[in-house]
């Protein structure tokens, strides 16, 4: 099984904490952080897993940051769907 097929299979089966999960979370965190996103890695992970965001008491949660990360998840799925 090649990498693309593995990612697609893990997404389809909702495999928890596999390669698809980690790729989504880490690439969304790193790519949006470069653009100035304020979400922590834990918040990005929670957003991916639960579609909810939790604030720690020290930092505000900006709506634009949540949209940016959510859109990154959708973009990665689009890339998987169209890579062939």
Number of domains: 1
Percent range for β-strand residues: under 5%
Total strands: 0
End-to-end gap: 14 Å
Question: How would you describe what is shown here?
Answer:
The chain is an all-alpha fold and 84 residues long. The protein has one domain. It has four helices and no strands. Helix 2 crosses helix 3 and helix 2 packs across helix 4. The chain is elongated, with a radius of gyration of 13 Å. The two termini are 14 Å apart.
Would you summarize the structure shown here?
The chain is mostly helical. The protein has helices at residues 3-13, 19-34, 41-50, 63-82.
Describe the secondary structure blueprint for this structure.
Blueprint: H1 3-13, H2 19-34, H3 41-50, H4 63-82
Helix pairs in contact: 2-3, 2-4
List keywords for this structure.
84 residues, mainly alpha, 4 helices, elongated
């Amino acid at each position: 099984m090649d990498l693309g097929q593995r990612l697609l299979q893990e997404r389809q089966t909702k495999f928890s904490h596999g390669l698809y999960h980690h790729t989504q979370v880490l690439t969304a965190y790193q790519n949006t952080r470069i653009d100035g996103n304020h979400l922590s890695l834990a918040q990005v992970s929670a957003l991916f897993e639960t579609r909810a965001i939790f604030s720690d008491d020290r930092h505000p949660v900006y709506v634009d940051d949540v949209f940016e990360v959510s859109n990154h998840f959708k973009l990665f799925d689009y890339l998987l769907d169209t890579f062939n």
